[in-house]
Amino acid sequence: MPPKKKPDDGAYQLLKKQIKSGEIGCLYVFHGEEAYLRDYYLGQMKQKLLPAGMEEFNLHTINGKDFDVKTLGQMVDCLPMMSQRTLIVVNDYDLYKGDKDGLMAVLKDLPDYVCLVFVYDLIEYKADARTKLAGLLKEKGSVVAFNRQDQGDLVDWIARRFKALDHDIGTEDARYLIFLCGDLMNTLISEIGKIGAYASHRRVTRADIDAVATPQLDAVVFQMTDAIAAGDFDKAAAVLGDLLHMQEAPIKLLSVLGKQLRQLYTARLALEQRKGTKYLMELWSMRSSYPAERLMQSAKRFSLSWCRRAVTRCGETDLAMKSTGADGEELLIALLMELAVKKGA
């Protein structure tokens, strides 16, 4: 399988340079999964463009549901007050729907004093490259995608955030935090705050992370399969019990477990074929090497036949859960018991 193409971050890098130099353009479209970065750089633009205390006069916002071209035109015509620029932020308006001709007429003649930013947050940005509007956006503006960050960049950012809280964290523990809580900065920033407040020493430890961080579902299910690999059925059952107690739907848990077992199976196959973590990362489009490394370590403790059987039984349980009307919790518990008993098979 060819490597997954890395997202183009040219517009993102250019935006950072423009903000740093103060040479901010007139038209932008902000979209992408990483809301933390989007909000951060929008905040940086406000600081650069709007003199302190004059935001009320020079910052104009409009929500998508209230958007119309006439209102936008009126905002564009508002001259800046005691400032060189005005900033207009349009939240969650689909550019490719509605009055495209009217919108293009406004965008073609944006005054130099205007900075217009369309922000996609609750709705997905879907460009239509065939349209004249797409060509105009490319000519007059910049479409900036705020993508999930690579592991190396995230580790560095986590270290800086902990340093701001008078704490240090090692690279491996930062990677563990990403594995446990996910790689979205908006989620990580709150977890870093909790851990920083809890940690009693300057150096943040794995124990500090485990004590207060809220793990994502995938990481919890991984703990369950890890417990099976270690022959600790009590721990595996306890993890499942906690998940069910939190009222996670059995079908959802089975779905995550099924993905985990398929990944484990491919990791075992990779070991059989003398392939490494890079192969696994490409196969599952992983941005971080940490989960791939964990999978490879875990796969060493399972036989190929067990992995194959586990994937099959998970699929059969999924079918039973959806078609027989049997109790989902009972089916899931029975599957876990079967996997634990036959771990060495």
Q: What is the number of beta strands?
A: 7
Shape: elongated
Mean pLDDT: 92
Taken in chain order, the helices and strands follow as HEHHEHEHEHEHEHHEHHHHHHHH
What fraction strand?
5-15%
Structural category is alpha/beta
- Main β-sheet description: 5 strands, parallel
Strand order of the largest sheet: 2-3-4-1-5
Q: What is the number of helical segments per DSSP (H or I, 4+ residues)?
A: 17
Query: N- to C-terminal separation?
Result: 30 Å
Question: Using only CA atoms, what is the Rg?
Answer: 25 Å
Helix content: 55-70%
Low-confidence stretches: none
Give an account of the 3D structure:
The protein has helices at residues 10-21, 35-49, 55-58, 69-77, 100-108, 132-140, 151-164, 171-181, 185-198, 206-212, 217-229, 233-245, 250-272, 277-283, 289-299, 304-323, 328-341, and strands spanning 27-31, 59-63, 86-91, 114-119, 142-145, 168-169, 203-204. It has 17 helices and seven strands. The chain is an alpha/beta fold. The chain is elongated, with a radius of gyration of 25 Å. The model has no long low-confidence stretch (mean pLDDT 92). The protein has a five-stranded parallel beta sheet, with helices on both faces. Helix 13 (250-272) packs across helix 15 (289-299).
Topology of helices and strands:
Elements: H1 10-21, E1 27-31, H2 35-49, H3 55-58, E2 59-63, H4 69-77, E3 86-91, H5 100-108, E4 114-119, H6 132-140, E5 142-145, H7 151-164, E6 168-169, H8 171-181, H9 185-198, E7 203-204, H10 206-212, H11 217-229, H12 233-245, H13 250-272, H14 277-283, H15 289-299, H16 304-323, H17 328-341
